[in-house]
Amino acid sequence: MLKQERRKQIMNLLEKEGRIVATTLSQTLNVSEDTIRRDLREMDALGLLQRVHGGALPRSTSAVDYKERKRELMDVKHSLAVAALPLIKDGQVLLMDGSTTNIQLVKAFPKNLNVTVITNSPLITVALAEHEFVEVVSLGGTFRKESMVTVGQSVVDTLKQIRADLCFLGVYAIDPKIGMSIPLLEEMHIKSQMIKSASEVAAIVTAKKLNTSSTYTFSSANSLDWLITEEHVNETVLNAYREIGIEVITNK
């Protein structure tokens, strides 16, 4: 079998199954495991998939740059944000990073909501300026223009001194076995510490990010208490998250 034909079959299987295992591929395509591992390594380098231990997952296709992300699925993100609102109670301390879904969440805050929001997102800080009863704590650090958040050791050190009630975490890619991952190393450290600094963790995740992977894994998927996602997602996919202890909420 020619290399290009083999790789086309690999991509077809990945699209159909959602994940591929090297040993199974070797048997299915009747080639050695070394050949399959080489294919996966080269296909990863080309950005066609995300190689993981033992096989591969779809690579997350979400944009990294904030200007691109803010244009993606905005109606869906607003709907998911509304579905997440019941998790928030008066008097809570909330940790929020600078995801576009979190921007939609704070825009949906009731005007009488009384909470404290700690964030590394200047955009969230500005969006909450008109909320009389919301106290905002901004985490200072190096401003990353591409993603519109502050990063760096000073942000991590401050987070270590915080104990929040609930963290709303922006997720670039998530898989029930591989965990949550992101292509940006500096933001990986921020997200990892936000999880450690909160009693409970929720993530608002569009369907296309489910069962995908990226470069830097910052936590296991079961660090989440709640996963808020789209109602049309296949129940088999959602059950894999429920089985590791995550409560799934959909935007019905």
From TrEMBL:
Q: What is this protein called?
A: Lactose phosphotransferase system repressor
Which PANTHER family does this entry report, sorted A to Z? GLYCEROL-3-PHOSPHATE REGULON REPRESSOR, HTH-TYPE TRANSCRIPTIONAL REGULATOR SRLR-RELATED
Q: Where does the source fall among the domains of life?
A: Bacteria
A single MF term (Gene Ontology): DNA-binding transcription factor activity
Which InterPro entries does its entry note?
A: Carb_Metab_HTH_regulators, DeoR-like_C, DeoR_HTH, NagB/RpiA_transferase-like, Tscrpt_reg_HTH_DeoR_CS, WH-like_DNA-bd_sf, WH_DNA-bd_sf
Query: Where would I find the HTH deoR-type domain in this sequence?
Result: 3-58
Chain's role: Repressor of the lactose catabolism operon. Galactose-6-phosphate is the inducer.
Q: Tell me which PROSITE patterns the record gives.
A: HTH_DEOR_1, HTH_DEOR_2
Repressor in keyword set = yes
Q: What are the protein's UniProt keywords?
A: DNA-binding, Repressor, Transcription, Transcription regulation
SUPFAM superfamilies from the UniProt entry: NagB/RpiA/CoA transferase-like (SSF100950), Winged helix' DNA-binding domain (SSF46785)
